[in-house]
Amino acid sequence: NTASLKGAATTFSVGTITRSPYVTAGGTHIEILKNEFNNLTSEYEMKMNIMYPSEGNYDFSAGDAIVGFAQANDMNVHGHALIWHNATPSWVENFSGTDAEFEAMVEDYITTTLNHYKGKVRSWDVVNEAFEDGTGHPLRNSVFRQKMGDDYIKKCFQFARNADPDVILFYNDYNMASSPTKRQAMFNLVDELGDLIDGVGAQMHISYNGPSAANIQAVADGTVSRNLKLHFAELDIRANPEEDTSLTSLSSDRANAQKDKFKEVVQIYNAIPLDNKFALTVWGVRDNESWLLDFWGVPEWPLMFDEDYNKKPAYAGFLEGL
Ligand code: XIL
Question: Do 36 and 7 touch, CB atoms closer than 8 A?
């Protein structure tokens, strides 16, 4: 079946995100998931604030709906994300116990979550977005760093490895292509983690006019040279990076420039060695469902399907990259 993204991409999984209400409702969105994709990520329901909303109370119901749907439709599930400063429940932010109790709580959370999804979730982003963007890219001073120390990331990977030695463990972050210094900080971390890490998740929130192919290639080269798996994660390609608020629709010039960038990203990914391949994941199906609209409040058309579920030039660009 080459008449689909997953059918055409024979050497890696093609991923996207979903939400439990979509899975429950069915409809065109779900048909597209089934037809086009074979790797599924929960957009926000497998993060700590949802899975562990209050002390001692785990809630996997939303994630279970997504995982059940994926299993019923032969899709792999990528778990995203165990530790993210932006999805930490308030009871954890305001943890009242000792540092040792905090660390035991994190170990219990990671162990319980990986055990719950053992055999159902192929891979996890253990830590997401740990670095600051500013000079030197220090570790963010999250509650995890404050209470567990600078090696909190290593501890979290060790907890995950102990809980499920078969699951593929990723570190995931953004601006890996556009910022060579942040990329280096990430690779330094990866080198410190050694055998505890299996792969690098490079979030691909990019624009039609950047970063360059050479900088995207550098992410691939650094990952391949370390013998790790590469996840081109969270791909969306902004067609209006200037944030021109007067734009009300996507011009054909912008749609074509976006198509070329989709093609370039897929070409770079497709050319890496088979052993380093994992998945290329787009961060959404339809333009109007993209997080860029809600979260950043900008007019954007960053995905491969328009709001009526028509395939955009970007879709053809993806196929041409293979
Ligand atoms: C975003 C989701 O798309 C939103 O629905 C949610 O409100 C916030 O998170 N980097 C990540 C993703 O790693 O988890 C983020 O997803 C987008 C940025």
Answer: no
| Structural domains in the chain, sorted by start | 5-320 (3.20.20.80)
Share of the chain above pLDDT 70, in %: 99
Q: From ligand 1's centre to the CA of 43, what distance in Å?
A: 6
Return d(Cα 44, Cα 42) in angstroms, integer: 6
Q: In 3D, which of 73, 61, 76 has the Cα closest to residue 122?
A: 76
What span, in angstroms and rounded, lies between the C-alpha atoms of 12 and 74?
15
**pTM confidence score:** 0.98
Asked if ipTM goes beyond 0.95, one says: yes
Distance CA 169, CA 249 (A): 39
Q: Does the active-site annotation cover 31?
A: no
Residue whose structure tokens are 């932010």: 93
**Among the listed residues 96, 105, 189, 197, the one whose alpha carbon sits nearest the alpha carbon of residue 151:** 189
| Closest ligand 1 atom number to CA of residue 19 | 5
